[in-house]
Amino acid sequence: MIIFENVSKTYEKGTRAIKNMNLKIRPGEFVFVCGRSGSGKSTFLKLLLKEVEPTSGRILVDDQDLGKMKRRGKAVPLYRRKLGVVFQDFRLLKDRNVYENVALAQRVVAAPAKDIRKEVTSILTTVGLSSKYKSYPANLSGGEQQRVAIARALVNKPEILLADEPTGNLDPSNSQEIMNLLEKVNEMGTTVIVVTHNAELVNRMKKRVITMRRGVVAGDVQEGEYQDESE
Amino acid sequence: MYRKANIRMKANRIIYCIRQGVQSIRRNGLFSLASVVTIAACVFLFGIFFSIVLNLQYMVKQAESTVGISVFFDDNLTEDEIMGLGETIQRHDSVAQIVYVSPEEAWERYKERYFADYPELAEGFENDNPLADSASYEVFVTEVEQQDAVAQWLQSLPGIRRVKYSELAAGGLEKANQLISLVSAGLILILLVVAVFLISNTISLAYAVRREEIEIMKWLGATNAFVRAPFVVEGLMIGLVGAAIPLLAVFFLYQTVVRFVMDRFGILLSVLKFLPAEQVMALLIPVGLLLGAGIGFMGSFFTIRKQLKV
């Protein structure tokens, strides 16, 4: 369970990114967090990743108070192992092949070599890239690169998958494929939170939609829709 | 079972860190090379000065151990009193040995020293020993450092006219020793700073190259120690390689120089007593490697700690 209680975040320059945010996300949910740029959705992700601290309020993830987690030591790394993260620009290491990119996540948690082979092969099959494990990112399409990034995010079996504009760099058909994959991941039990402003995709998926506007939650609707105001 | 898995996990982590460290050295070849060369220069100079200082100390020790304290008696002292005095001196904890030098022996030594080339000059004194009142004890101490204290104690004894000891014959050597130690310490300090700075630069570059990877690793839940370890391994490796090369060079150079001096200046062998290379290296190798590893560790650990904070 993810709980935001009266969370506000003001950056040092005085920008108020999030104002008094209250929300609950239950385990196994699929949630879209939508809004224009500057609406605070990226800060929402950064707060969840404990990259930044809230100025006020409390964030609980599985009853763990992120505010009480010490930066030094292992608490933050161990917490982050519960999360998987996917970015718009994939953030794959260009000098490593598909297998090595995914295996990196396992190496970070010091998984035994035998397990790494098994888990990486299995997750690459799930994302449909088992035949391309030797390819380098430069030789893959955008959709394929994003699937590698998803595989990397999932290989350690996180409880929550955070996706920051995962289809931002993809064409509509690849975007839909990625959404289908995320839905499949969600059906396997992982909580999926997708930050996006792609209204068309959101509206087609019929999932919970949290709309953010100037740092506040402007809407929170089950099987909701998102109206992109910039259009 | 759990313990075994834990050990395997740790082993995997160490292997991963070492592999990453080696890869990083290869990636930043030129910077790594510059760091190795600077550390090598630092350790090389250290090795040279270390060997010189060690040998000078050895020579000072040698010289000092051959110098005794001469103790002269009051004119009116009887032979028994002189014997009693000898026993008192011998009982002192810091006295290793005492030798009685009779006036005749004193005169013989004097002649040998000053009239060796002109024996006819000494003949005039044949029946009239000018050193008739110069019977003495030569006192040898157990530790050279005790020489001052023992001399003072001897001076305080009743019946003793004069205490004479060279402060020291080896004084010049000791001064040279101090000067060389000081100059070498200064030079090494400067080189140390340069070496740490260069390693720090190399590690900063390695960090810049791997910045994206580190960011990803941190999102994936890597601990700071896990992220830091390959950089520290890199610094340590640069430090150790940078130290090992000059140590080898110093070993061969030392042997060559000692052989050369022995061959060319054999006449000075009584003064120039060198320590065997093995004895110098037995001290120099651990100290040098520690120095290299220390520079590598300091340069990398603090740099990466600073970078990770940002």
TrEMBL record, chain A:
Cellular location(s): Cell membrane
Superkingdom to which the source organism belongs: Bacteria
Membrane-spanning segments: none
InterPro entries, sorted: AAA+_ATPase, ABC_transporter-like_ATP-bd, ABC_transporter-like_CS, ABC_transpr_LolD-like, Cell_div_FtsE, P-loop_NTPase
Membrane topology recorded in Swiss-Prot or TrEMBL: Peripheral membrane protein
Domain ABC transporter: 2-231
Key words, A-Z: ATP-binding, Cell cycle, Cell division, Cell membrane, Membrane, Nucleotide-binding
GO CC list: plasma membrane
Main location: membrane
Annotated GO MF terms: ATP binding; ATP hydrolysis activity; transmembrane transporter activity
Gene3D superfamilies associated with the record: P-loop containing nucleotide triphosphate hydrolases
GO biological process: one example: cell division
Quaternary structure and interacting proteins, as annotated: Homodimer. Forms a membrane-associated complex with FtsX.
NCBIfam families, sorted: FtsE (TIGR02673)
PANTHER family named in the record: CELL DIVISION ATP-BINDING PROTEIN FTSE, IMPORT ATP-BINDING PROTEIN
Function noted in UniProt: Part of the ABC transporter FtsEX involved in cellular division.
Protein family membership: Belongs to the ABC transporter superfamily.
Protein name per Swiss-Prot or TrEMBL: Cell division ATP-binding protein FtsE
The species this protein was found in: Cuneatibacter caecimuris
Gene expressing this chain: ftsE
TrEMBL record, chain B:
Membrane topology: Multi-pass membrane protein
Domain FtsX extracellular: 67-163
Record-annotated membrane-spanning stretches: 29-54, 182-209, 230-254, 280-304
An individual GO BP term: cell division
Record localization: Cell membrane
Ranges where the ABC3 transporter permease C-terminal domain occurs: 187-309
Keywords: Cell cycle, Cell division, Cell membrane, Membrane, Transmembrane, Transmembrane helix
UniProt GO cellular component terms: plasma membrane
Described function: Part of the ABC transporter FtsEX involved in asymmetric cellular division facilitating the initiation of sporulation.
PANTHER family named among the record's database cross-references: CELL DIVISION PROTEIN FTSX
Family to which the UniProt record says this protein belongs: Belongs to the ABC-4 integral membrane protein family. FtsX subfamily.
NCBIfam families: FtsX_Gpos
Annotated protein name in UniProt: Cell division protein FtsX
Native species: Cuneatibacter caecimuris
